[in-house]
Amino acid sequence: MKSFLRYRDLPSFCRSSDMEDPSLQLVIRETQQSTRAQALILNTFEDLEAPIINHIRTRCPKTCTIGPLHLLLNTRLSMKKSQEASSIPQYSNSLWKVDRSCIEWLDRQPSRSVLFVSFGSITILTRGQFLEFWYGIVSSKKRFLW
Q1: Conformational region of residue 98, where left means phi above 0, alpha means psi within -120 to 50, and beta covers everything else
Q2: Other C-beta atoms within 10 Å of 4: how many?
Q3: What Gene Ontology molecular-function terms does this entry list (predicted)?
Q4: φ, ψ for residue 93 (rounded to 5)?
Q5: CB-based contacts of 60: which residues, under 8 Å, 6+ apart?
Q6: Of 21, 77, 90, 111, which sits most exposed with the smallest number of CB within 10 A?
C-alpha cells in the first residue's frame, strides 16, 4: 500500500501507526480489493483530486469520479423535507454524525456576531498551528464556534 499511495495521501483518521487500528485495516482491505476490480467509482471530482486520481488510473484505468454524492443525497432529502414541511434545507459534508447541540446557543447570539471556525473533517494541524489559531481567535474577543 505504501508504494501505491503515500502515507500522507491518506486521511488523518487512517494514519495510525497501530497496524491493528480498525480504520487503517479498512483502508488496507479496500485498497487490496480494489486491485481486483474491473472499475472503480470514487466519490470525488477531477478538479479536486486530479493528481491522485491519475495515479490510481495507472493501476486501474477504468476509474470514474461521480462525487460529491453526499451533497446529492442531502439535496434530495432536503427537497423532500422542504416539500413536506416547508423547512430550510440542511446541508452537511461531515464524515461523522453532526453535533447540533450548539444551535440553541447560536440562535441566541446577535446576527453576524459569531466567528465560525472549521478546518474540515480531515485537516491536520501541528500543535503550534492549532495554538496560533486559538490565540488569534481568543484575542479577537469575538464570540466563536469552533
Answers
A1: beta
A2: 13
A3: quercetin 3-O-glucosyltransferase activity; quercetin 7-O-glucosyltransferase activity
A4: -120, 25
A5: 34, 35, 37, 39, 40
A6: 111
pTM of the model: 0.42
C-alpha 10/C-alpha 40 separation (Å) is: 17
Determine the Cα–Cα distance for residues 132 and 26; give it in Å rounded to an integer.
34
- Tens digit of pLDDT at every position of the chain (146 positions): 445 667 777 667 677 788 888 877 887 888 888 878 899 988 888 888 888 899 889 888 999 998 777 666 666 677 666 666 555 555 555 566 767 788 889 999 999 899 988 877 666 678 898 899 999 999 999 999 88
How is the chain split into domains, by residue range?
94-146
Cell numbers describing residue 66? 461521480
Q: How far is CA 65 from CA 7, 10, 43, 89, 106, in A?
A: 22, 18, 6, 26, 37
Query: Quick one: residue 48, left, alpha or beta (phi over 0 = left, psi -120 to 50 = alpha)?
Result: alpha
